[in-house]
Write a structure and sequence with these properties.
Rossmann fold, 250 residues, alpha/beta, seven-stranded parallel β-sheet, 38% helix, binds 1,4-dihydronicotinamide adenine dinucleotide, 14% strand, 7 helices
């Protein structure tokens, strides 16, 4: 059982029905937080019940979603200390094969919704003391062909993190991000059948394994905790060393 760094605090985690978001919510609960789990999927209610927490079925892309989420968290728990923008979708293609609807869907869900939701929830965070953690991707930090609109959105999330750290730092709100590499979740399950993906993205990982959702939850909890009290504007790769040293093994 980890040290309880979040006793008495309230966290919102988007995309928390399953995968990385579920693991982040689980970690916060283990460390004493109360959590509002938000997701498009109705299964989020079961995930929240399992954790003894509250849930909200909500599409983060919908206009006003951030205010709806904030009001649900305030009604359930009376305060909001931490926002984790984790909800996201894959399904990206190379640019030549991306129609307008795909580009719009990927940018809107993975980037624009993060800006809007954060703009609406951040006024409810304590000043000083609020914390925001965004979920970017290694695909947003280095080029990888065939994932263009997704990668551009995740690069935007990384830059948004730096921008907002500057804007909210004077209010005592810290803003950081994680950039996961290959994590085994429903989003990536089909990729394992793709030999190009396995050869280019999985085999070069220096730690010689894919990540688990809990591998991301620990760094998110660190960035949200007082252990990172002087850390803001950082995009932390959580990728088994892939970005640092992916160019082959001796
Ligand atoms: P997942 O597909 O297992 O979980 C994503 C969750 O977000 C789902 O429960 C989904 O219903 C929810 N969601 C999607 N669109 C939503 C919307 N408009 N409103 C509310 N909820 C919505 O995926 P996974 O792997 O857990 O991904 C979580 C985050 O991590 C995403 O932002 C993803 O881009 C990012 N990521 C994942 C990596 C991986 O290898 N799995 C690598 C790098 C980043």
């Amino acid at each position: 059982m980890p040290e309880k760094r979040f006793t008495g605090q309230v966290a919102i985690v988007t995309g928390a029905a399953r995968g990385i978001g579920e693991a982040i919510a689980t970690r916060f609960v283990a460390e004493g937080a109360k959590v509002l789990l938000v997701d498009l999927l109705r299964d989020v209610a079961d995930t929240a019940t399992r954790l003894g927490q509250k849930s909200l079925v909500c599409d983060v892309v919908a206009r006003g979603a951030g205010e709806t989420i904030a009001q649900a968290a305030l009604a359930a728990f009376g305060r909001i200390d931490i926002l984790v923008n984790n909800a996201g979708i894959g399904g990206s293609k190379r640019l030549a094969d991306s129609d307008d609807a795909l580009i719009e869907r990927l940018i809107d869900t993975n980037l624009s919704a993060v800006l809007r939701v954060t703009r609406e929830i951040s006024p409810h965070l304590p000043r000083p003391g609020g914390r925001i953690v965004n979920v970017s991707s290694t695909f947003g930090l280095a080029g990888y062909p065939g994932t263009t609109a997704y990668a551009v959105a995740k690069a935007g999330v990384a830059q948004f993190t730096r921008q907002l750290a500057g804007e909210l730092g004077p209010d005592g709100i810290r803003v950081n991000a994680v950039a996961p590499g290959v994590i085994q979740t429903p989003m990536t399950i089909a990729h394992r059948e793709n030999p190009f993906y396995m050869r280019v993205v999985v085999e070069p990982i220096p730690l010689e394994r894919m990540g688990e959702p809990a591998d991301v939850a620990g760094p998110v909890a660190f960035l949200a905790s007082d252990d990172a009290a002087f850390v803001t504007g950082v995009v932390l790769p959580v990728d088994g060393g892939y970005l640092a040293a992916r160019h082959g093994k001796l």
